[in-house]
Amino acid sequence: MEKKKQHQSFRLAQQWRLLLLLLLLLLSAASAAQGHNYADALHKSLLYFEAQRSGRLPYNQRVGWRDHSGLTDGLEQGVDLVGGYYDAGDHVKFGLPMAFTVTMLSWGVIEYRDEIGAAGELEHALEAIKWGTDYFIKAHTSPNVLWAEVGDGDTDHYCWQRPEDMTTSRQAYKVDENNPGSDLAGETAAAMAAASIVFRKTNPHYSQLLLHHAQQLFEFGDKYRGKYDEEEGSVGVVKRYYASVSGYMDELLWGALWLYKATDREEYLKYVITEAQSFGGIGWAISEFSWDVKYAGLQIIASKLLMEEKHKKYSHILEKYRSKAEFYLCSCLRKSNGSDVDHTPGGLIYIRQWNNMQYVSTTAFLLTVYSDFLRSSGQNLSCHGGSVGHEELFRFAKSQVDYILGSNPMNMSYLVGFGPNYPTRVHHRGASMVSYRENKGFIGCTQGYDNWYGRPEPNPNVIIGALVGGPDWQDNFTDERGNYMQTEACTYNTAPLIGVFGKLSQLEGNEDGQTQNLVASY
User: Fold this and answer.
1) For residue 484, what are the contacts with CB-CB under 8 A and spacing of at least 6?
2) What percent of the chain is predicted at pLDDT more than 90?
3) Which residues pair with 386 in a beta bridge?
4) Whole-Å CA distances, 359 to 186, 288, 298, 352, 364
């Protein structure tokens, strides 16, 4: 009799466990169906750019643990280079990734201005762009001179200091007629041309100023051709950090296309058409889009020109651009012919070990933009694995964003400050030490390593909106400050997400259930 009672109790306990498990699964499914708070993600992402500011911070600075820094940048060279952005967790101002960051911020606003505005974040997005373009105006001191970098990675990485305490070298480096940098000039031209479109209606004088600089920079980069990272001359010190592996041809095509969009002057479009083959625009089939490699973005924009009647005379070349764009998109979807991009078991695009999230965010943006193009033109994407509609393309883009925001095997949001579980030991000097505003006591070059770097505790300052490098190829992530491949964030990681978050936040607010039909797999 006692055994029978024990057996019944055991069965009852099992049933309760199953019911509890079922309840948890239902709650999880309901949570997934609700999606993420994309408006909050947008808000937090824009805060990150304020945390990365160099120079004298404005009165309306919202990130309170930061203070003024780099106030003598350029002084040794007799030029004012105060301002701009630190690229990541250190304090070097690298021109190429900074320019790409601004290009992507601007492109996001161009595509999704209304959606970002509806979320109440347009002013903050414009401020993030202008903080970069104000610096580029300073850095472009004459038609054929562009200051490319302030500080250098070697001396900077030797120290672990707050930006407000910096004692490292602030030497500035430039490109000019004798030491060319067509890649840097082309990308900076693209950034300023794209930003000129953003400010055209709200600040027309500033827009014209940006366009003037963009045109001069493109002409300089095209006339005096060469890579900016050559060992002899130019900016050789950058080679270990932001080497121009793809060369400068992609940036010249990219800059010319953005200038065409900004000016509607056919000479720039003719450049993109006539140099398409020789510069690799229609020859290279690429499976990444990044601060170094611009071909996929170039091909996406060129594809969209096919919609307009005035471009029909160039359709034979624009169709070739489109073919390469679709190769990129199909490879991301794993529907190309043997050149598929790797995915982790959890479904994340995986390009390489170091800071993989930069490729995820750029891919999500391009997928979203092309999905809109397919929808508006009534077309499908043609892949080796079959035809793909705009819904499937956008669904995959959203799955990448949702993975970033926590729908992943680790249940970890890789956007810092978003959701209940996110990296707390980000590889970032300023965030990892007591705020200068709390304690102005000087922290020396190696004191930071001695007293702060190795601490097991979370960072005292949360660098909200930073998109860290992310998990490995098996979806594993180790939240340690020294694990810089996974825990360091960069401005060009977060920048492409601004537009995507804007679009998703708009869908999230709709009442027709579109968002519920686009839930991720985790």
Assistant:
1) 89, 427, 469
2) 83
3) 383
4) 21, 6, 16, 9, 8
Query: How far, in Å, CA of 481 to CA of 433, rounded?
Result: 12
Backbone angles phi, psi at 335, to 5 degrees: -130, 30
Q: Which of 90, 121, 152, 156 is catalytic?
A: 90
- Which residues, in sequence order, are CB contacts of 81 under 8 Å at separation 6+? 73, 74, 93, 135, 138, 139, 147, 150, 172
Q: Measured between alpha carbons, how far is residue 72 from residues 66, 81, 151, 167 in Å?
A: 17, 8, 11, 11
Residue 80 is among the residues annotated as catalytic for this protein: no
Which of 509, 400, 461 shows the shortest CA–CA distance to 40?
509
- CA 59 – CA 50 distance, rounded (Å): 12
Q: Under DSSP, is residue 378 helix (H, G, I), strand (E, B) or coil?
A: coil
Which amino acid, residue 192? M
Instruction: Write the DSSP assignment of 121-147 as a string of letters.
Output: -HHHHHHHHHHHHHHHHHH--BTTBEE
Three-state secondary-structure class, residue 76 = helix
Q: Are 67 and 164 in contact (CB under 8 A)?
A: yes
Of 149, 152, 251, 488, catalytic: 488
| Statement: residue 22 has pLDDT above 70 | no
Helix (H, G, I), strand (E, B), or coil: what is residue 425? coil
Task: Enter the tokens of residue 279.
Answer: 């510069």
488 in active site = yes
- Mapped onto helix, strand or coil, the DSSP state of residue 267 is helix
SS3 string of 477-509? CCCCCCCHHHHCECHHHHCCHHHHHHHHHHHHH
pLDDT given at position 35:
77
Secondary structure of 288-330 as H, E, C letters: CCCCCCCHHHHHHHHHHHHHCHHHHHHHHHHHHHHHHHHHHHH
- Residue 268 gets which letter from DSSP? H
pTM: 0.91
What contacts 95, CB < 8 A, 6 or more positions away? 139, 146, 147, 148, 149, 184, 188, 228
- Give Cα separations from 387 to 327, 372, 374, 392 (angstroms): 13, 16, 12, 10
Helical H runs in 380-516?
A: 390-404, 429-432, 447-448, 484-487, 491-494, 497-509
pLDDT digits (tens, 9 = 90+) for 347-374: 999 999 999 999 999 999 999 999 999 9
From the list 173, 136, 152, 138, the residue with the least C-alpha distance to 92 is: 152
Q: Which residues pair with 382 in a beta bridge?
A: 387
Which of 111, 427, 428, 508 is catalytic? The answer is 427
Collapsed DSSP state (helix, strand, coil) of residue 94: strand
Rg (CA), the chain: 24
Residue given tokens 């366009």 in the structure block: 211
Selection from 215, 92, 106, 209 nearest residue 147 by Cα: 92
CA gap 506, 38 in Å, rounded: 9
In sequence order, which residues have a C-beta less than 8 Å from that of residue 5 and are 6 or more positions away? Answer: none
Q: pLDDT tens across 407-451, in order?
A: 999 999 999 999 999 999 999 999 999 999 999 999 999 999 999
